[in-house]
Amino acid sequence: MEGKLKRRLPIDDGLLDSIDALDLFVVYDHPRDFPEKFVVRRWQGIVPTAEFALADSLEEARAKVPGDCVRIDRNPADDPAILETWL
Question: What pLDDT is stored for residue 33 in this prediction?
Answer without folding.
Answer: 95
